Predict the structure.
Amino acid sequence: MYMRQTLEEDAGKTNEGVRLALYFQRKAPDITSWYDVLADTALASVVRTALGLPDSFATADIDKQAQLFGQKLDIKDFTDPEKLSKFLTRFTSMYEIAHPTSTAVTSVSVLFAQPTTVGISTDLMLAMQQLKF
């Protein structure tokens, strides 16, 4: 248990989304109602993010939040490792969209950057012309 919590904390220093996902994965088997999720701000944040709900949704009536979560997700899925994994993949994807890391921003900027001039040097062209096939 201590090792797992330390892993979560260390991961959180680099990426808060990873910490939240690991924490949710550890707590998921013990979740029996949506009120368990709503009572824990980290768990609730994961569910809201996975569902694409704004942070302001946390201020809505607690019963309305539980009702919406229940309409969108089956709480029993959190006990199934495969379904939990799919849910956490969805969460991490949505988290990265909402909180892009510098690596993600760099990757996107590379995709949309203006192309640089690419060409063949005259030396290379001369060398290629002298090749015999």
